[in-house]
Amino acid sequence: MRIDDFQKPAHTNVLCSNWIKWDQPIIWFQNTTDAVAAQFFLKNIHSEMRTAATELYGSLETFDSRPNVYGELMRFLISPSSDVEEAVSWALQGRQDPDITLHMRMLMNRSLRAAQAALSCIRKTISNLQLSNPRVVVVSDTPSFIRSITHNISEFAEVFGFDYKHFKGNLSIADAKLHKLDFRTRDWGPTPRWVAFVDFFLASRAKRAVVSGAHRRIGTTYAQLVAALAAANNLGDDSVSSDFSFLSSFQSNLLSEGLGNQVGWGHVWNRFAGPLSCRGQPHQCAFTPLLPPAWWDGLWQSPIPRDIRRLAAYGIKLSGFGTSDENHLLSFCKSRKETVKTVSVLKA
After folding, report:
1. Per-residue pLDDT tens over the stretch 206-251
2. CA torsion, points 309, 56, 245, 321, in degrees to nearest 10?
3. Start-end of H helices in 130-169
4. Phi, psi of 147 (to 5 degrees)
5. pLDDT score of 124
6. E strands within the chain?
7. Cβ atoms within 10 A of the Cβ of 137, count?
8. End-to-end CA distance of the chain
9. Which of 19, 217, 2, 23 is nearest to 103 (CA)?
10. Residue 318 gets which letter from DSSP?
11. What pTM value is reported for the model?
12. What SS3 state is found at 104?
């Protein structure tokens, strides 16, 4: 098995080597912790690699041509355990699957502006979809925020979620026996870690849309994966088209300086965070790609300085407007020595 570590720019061959010609039958592309790392193959110097990557990920320039790669993979590769399924069924309480999922990444904050923007985005989505009796499921890392926004949503839709404190299934019984840890509580929230799995599979049952809101960064990896799996579930095996929507709810204070604070490397709006992002915008309910872009080739995309510096370590000379110098990458690849790291896989 050959190992290539994406997070080590001096050693990874993601841009400079033709993986199709490698001898090893198994390749571990290590530390690809988000949806963008494998999309680096779209800029590989070998045409065979770029062609294969384009067939998998679609064109760089337009979102409409880009397939829901990770949603389709998840639909076939993952499923809830029986205990998680029990918790999801308990949350549904005999209801039909939700029409819309609202995911709010609040980091223990209760921002009024974030709530107002999310409520506006849900109302707009319900109107656009012409839903008469909408059902909305709410998930968040901040339980207190769920309680407050649920009251507001209930004025125009049926709203529910998973309240782990009232659930008495196998997961809660097992959790009661575990030692509680306050590890990364501000980042991940105060609820037990297993709740995130229940929320994930409940949220991914949305039939028409997923709305992502946040205190600061919109469209984080968790929200991306929920939307991707929900869209894949909605499309199914026999359908040829889908009217499923992934939407980002931005409050105006997040847009005062454009998208400059959407800086997470794997976050869906990171590639729009540079100098071309529009400033001083009001609340936005923005259509969002199911497959986050990894490059800056599309309209209005531009990099932040930190990403320009990061790409330089991989041999990419990136301009402030997102264009890259192909000759610079070719020279970089010619000057470096290809790293080969393998391990033997033995039969038991």
Report:
1. 999 999 999 999 998 999 999 999 999 998 655 555 689 999 999 9
2. 30
3. 143-153
4. -65, -40
5. 97
6. 2-5, 27-30, 100-105, 135-140, 158-160, 209-214, 245-250, 284-287, 341-342
7. 26
8. 16
9. 217
10. B
11. 0.92
12. strand
